[in-house]
C-alpha cells in the first residue's frame, strides 16, 4: 500500500519568485514520512529523540517537474523499501492540484547505534512500518529511469 497525505503550500515554503524553494520540497517530503510513521503507531516524539538508536538520512535527491505556488493543494505519496538489514529508502511523488507530478524525491536512511555510531539492524517499529507501506516491488522508479533504446 502506498502512503499519501495532503498539504497546502504556505508562503514560507516559497522563494522570491513565488514558487516552492527547492530545499522545501525535501522538508515537505519529510513531513509526509513523519506522518506515515505516526499513522503506523510510532511515537514520533520518542522516535526522533536521541535514544539508543538513530535513523539518519544518508542520501537525498529530487527532481522538479512543475512549479508549486503558495496556496496550492498537493498530495505527497511515499513508498518505503528496505534496502539492507539496517537501511531503507523512501521514494516520494509530489502531485499538484491537477494530479500531475510536480516533483519526485528520495531519501536513504540507515539505522545506527548512537553509542558507537555503527550500523544496527532495523528496529521492530521500522520493520512494521515498512510492512505496512512498502509495495512488493517498485516497478518504475520516478528518480531513476533508464534511457530507452
What can you see in these coordinates?
- The protein is an alpha+beta fold.
- It is 22% helix and 33% strand.
- It has a five-stranded antiparallel β-sheet with strand order 1-4-5-6-3, covered by helices on one side.
- β5 and β6 form a beta hairpin.
- The radius of gyration is 16 Å and the shape is elongated.
- Mean pLDDT is 90; it is low at 138-149.
Short account of what is shown:
With 149 residues, the chain is of the alpha+beta class.
* Beta-strand residue fraction: 25-35%
**Main sheet attributes: strand count, strand direction, barrel closure:** 5 strands, antiparallel
- Oligomer kind: single chain
In total, the number of strands is 7
Rg, rounded, reads: 16 Å
What strand order characterises the main sheet? 1-4-5-6-3
Instruction: Determine the N-to-C terminus distance.
Output: 32 Å
Run of helices and strands: EHHEEEEEEH
Q: Name the poorly predicted regions.
A: 138-149
Structural class: alpha+beta
* Global morphology: elongated
Amino acid at each position: 500500500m502506498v502512503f499519501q497525505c495532503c498539504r497546502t503550500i504556505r508562503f514560507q515554503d516559497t522563494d522570491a519568485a513565488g514558487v516552492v524553494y527547492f530545499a522545501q520540497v525535501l522538508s515537505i517530503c519529510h513531513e509526509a514520512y513523519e506522518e506515515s510513521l505516526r499513522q503506523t503507531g510510532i511515537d514520533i516524539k520518542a522516535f526522533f529523540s536521541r535514544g539508543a538508536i538513530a535513523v539518519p538520512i544518508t542520501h537525498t535527491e529530487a527532481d522538479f517537474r512543475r512549479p508549486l505556488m503558495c496556496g496550492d493543494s498537493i498530495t505527497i505519496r511515499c513508498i518505503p523499501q528496505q534496502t539492507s538489514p539496517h537501511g531503507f529508502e523512501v521514494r516520494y511523488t509530489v502531485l499538484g492540484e491537477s494530479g500531475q507530478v510536480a516533483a519526485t524525491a528520495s531519501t536513504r536512511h540507515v539505522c545506527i547505534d548512537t553509542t558507537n555510531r555503527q550500523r544496527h539492524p532495523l528496529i521492530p517499529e521500522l520493520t512494521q512500518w515498512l510492512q505496512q507501506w512498502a509495495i512488493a516491488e517498485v516497478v518504475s522508479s520516478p528518480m531513476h529511469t533508464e534511457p530507452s533504446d
